[in-house]
Predict the 3D structure of the following.
Amino acid sequence: MKTVFRDAELFDLIPQRPPIVMVDLLQNVTDSGAETGLTIKEDNLFVHNGQMQEPGLIEHIAQSAAAFAGFKGYADGGQPRLGYIGEIKRLFVYARPCVGACLHTTLRVLGEAAGITLLAAEVKDGEALVAEGQMKIFLKED
Amino acid sequence: MNKEELIEKVNTTLAEEFETDIEKLTPDANIKKTLELDSLSLVDMIALIDNEFGVKIANTELPKIQTFQALYDYLEANMK
């Protein structure tokens, strides 16, 4: 089974398409979490004055969660299932990363109940913590 | 941790997190109604229990845990 998804390969897992795609790597997926990435390009919609703005970081976390959710459907042998964001909380943005930065995001499952998954996300640029927060997602039933 | 200490810690933790009067957390009270949990906030309780008590409540077990007494019993049986 495929375990690393890059660039357009992620289109099998998420519903977003360019120019709104905010994740370009998914790897190390387990039941308890995953890692995602994004290289910030100059033409990114959320870049202003050479820096990724806060909504872009939130969207990156959301799409990371969506990719993780999509992978679960893929891993179960079916089609990826659409993941919806139920809630974002305890979100902190510490910096606006610059064009060229390679974001590395760690997702960790904090709990699951009634089809809803609570994820913690940590976004880093190198060693620097850029943003962190929690997100609830649920998968659309077929 | 004995049963009384467990109950006190569960009640304190849940009352604080969900901003509920601790007096309302009685053994026979319904958890969802008392803490005003909806489907979104239910997962918060699951995560909190896991974090504070090291016990993961499986989806299959969740329907059986309707009251605080059931939660105390479940935690007592599953805490290491």
User: Anything to note?
Assistant: Residues 3-18+27-78 of chain B form a domain with the Non-ribosomal Peptide Synthetase Peptidyl Carrier Protein; Chain A fold (CATH 1.10.1200.10). Residues 65 and 74 of chain B are 8 Å apart (CA to CA).
